[in-house]
């Protein structure tokens, strides 16, 4: 199964909240679920998956390796632990969560370990997250561009990352957008609001449709069933060229996430 266009994210969701969110998403028709070791919710995500009764081969499950597990002797054991928590025998996609240039493990070591996890059948596909152009080039040198299913990066109308996106697309590496709604900030933008009224849509639907139109995969999260259902309708919203031009003009390099010690030098 290729990387789905639309999934549900679980960042910052814990305990009963994440169980309910994933359960609602699966009931509504979502089939891609994005989690990570550092989210500390893999067990709850797994619980919701098992309880849903959705066949495993209909699901696309992504997790991410945390920076303290990048060493060659730690990455695969940590992924096996994630699989146990998720109640599955392999994930569909495993990502390096942050490049973490100062954590003492070389990119060559952790990308080789990630490729070995794939070779062992622990993950169907591998990829990266929060990599800039230079680091993506280095990852390509280790595993080949065909092996990198996606680079999951922060993208929104306020942070369009055009140089990185152009590079990734030139290499055939799929772009996954996270923080697409910029913590909700873009939902208050008057231009987005005007486009939403024009199409009788919500502002969130407009922003998600914008990302989908550009070819990105999106993984919005919500604790509310009605918002999960509403977000899915973005797949049916067709923005016109004028809409896309107006949204493109909203760029302001409005990055929301850039943790010290983990983030690269951004393009």
In short:
The protein is of the alpha/beta class and 267 residues long. 41% of the residues lie in helices and 14% in strands. It has ten helices and eight strands.
Q: Name the CATH class of the domain at 8-183 and 216-221.
A: Alpha Beta
Percentage of β-strand residues: 5-15%
Biggest sheet strand order reads 1-2-3-4-5-6-7-8
Order of helices and strands: EHEHEHEHEHEHEHHEHH
Shape by Cα distribution = globular
Rounded to the nearest angstrom, the distance between the terminal CA atoms is 31 Å
Give the fraction of residues assigned to helices.
40-55%
Largest beta-sheet characterization = 8 strands, parallel
Q: Count of helical segments?
A: 10
Uncertain runs: none
User: On the 0-100 scale, what is the average pLDDT?
Assistant: 98
Give the class from helix and strand content and strand pairing: alpha/beta
Q: Please state the second-level CATH architecture of the domain at 8-183 and 216-221.
A: Alpha-Beta Barrel
Q: Radius of gyration in whole Å, from Cα?
A: 18 Å
CATH superfamily of the domain at 8-183 and 216-221: NADP-dependent oxidoreductase domain
């Amino acid at each position: 199964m290729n990387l789905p266009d639309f999934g549900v994210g679980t960042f910052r969701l814990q305990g009963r909240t994440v169980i309910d969110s994933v359960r609602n998403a699966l009931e509504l028709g979502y089939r891609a679920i994005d989690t990570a070791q550092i989210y500390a919710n893999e067990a709850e995500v797994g619980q919701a998956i098992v309880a849903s009764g959705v066949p495993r081969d209909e699901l696309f499950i992504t997790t991410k390796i945390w920076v303290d597990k990048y060493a060659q002797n730690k990455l695969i054991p940590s992924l096996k632990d994630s699989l146990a928590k998720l109640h599955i025998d392999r994930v569909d996609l495993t990502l390096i969560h942050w490049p973490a240039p100062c954590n003492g493990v070389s990119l060559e070591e952790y990308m080789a370990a990630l490729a070995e996890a794939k070779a062992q059948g622990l993950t169907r596909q591998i990829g990266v997250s929060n990599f800039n152009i230079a680091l993506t080039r280095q990852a390509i040198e280790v595993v080949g561009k065909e092996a990198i299913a996606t680079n999951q990066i922060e993208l929104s109308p306020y942070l369009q990352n055009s140089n990185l996106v152009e590079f990734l697309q030139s290499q055939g590496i799929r772009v996954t957008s996270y923080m697409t709604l910029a913590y909700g900030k873009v939902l208050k933008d008057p231009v987005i609001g005007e486009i939403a009224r024009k199409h009788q849509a919500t502002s969130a639907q407009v922003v998600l449709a914008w990302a989908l139109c550009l070819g990105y995969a999106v993984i919005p999260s919500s604790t509310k069933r009605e918002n999960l259902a509403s977000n899915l309708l973005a797949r049916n919203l067709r923005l016109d060229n004028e809409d896309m031009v107006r949204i493109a003009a909203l760029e302001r390099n409005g990055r929301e996430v850039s943790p010290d010690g983990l983030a690269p030098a951004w393009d």
